[in-house]
Specification:
single chain; 227 residues; alpha/beta; Rossmann fold; Arc Repressor Mutant, subunit A; 2 domains; 5-stranded parallel β-sheet; 4-stranded antiparallel β-sheet; binds calcium ion
Amino acid sequence: MAGERILLIEDEARIAQFIERGLIYEGYRVSVARDGQTGLSIARDNPPDLVILDWMLPGLDGLEVCKRLRAASDVPILMLTAKDDIKDRVTGLDAGADDYLVKPFSVDELMARVRALFRRSTPTSRPEILRFNDLTLDTGTHRAYRGERAIDLTAKEYELLELFMRNPRQVLTRDVIFDRVWGYDFGGESNIIEVYVRYLRQKTEAEGEPRLIHTVRGVGYVLREEE
Ligand code: CA
């Protein structure tokens, strides 16, 4: 796991240094940008394996940087924010962030999130083609197909869909989904799973196809044919 390159975009020197030290200690290679424009240039010239992106940046803010990064690649993006508010989280997720960390955080917390993002985004085995009904998922390219229609997925959307595809017709509880996709307990009443299920439905049902990801009220979700 060591040696992956992480791009850190953070304007506050003290926080940037604290994070950079922690990452280097864990064996990661780190590039630091102090503003969004510089971060985007670095990402373009030397694509990182993961981006840690502060929300509040001078000039281009973190959300805009996130959108631009996402438009160009599927790199996992961990956003740092002082805004511990569900609505803001959803805004960030809509912009393409894969995960969130609310300031102030401990270095252990940060490392756990970074490891979880890497664990989920690194293919560990030979590519497979998973199929369910007319839905296909290529674990090599991370691309999904509904029938012939290709669907682009963000890193987190892919992980969630892969979890469903590997456990068809089984009800997955919210706890299991949190643990398997986010790798830690999100705590409290986060609606992050609902948000991602909504994204997956929008993408897999974009042309009016029958629903495959169903809500099991009060429990979780299940991938199955429509009844
Ligand atoms: Ca900042």
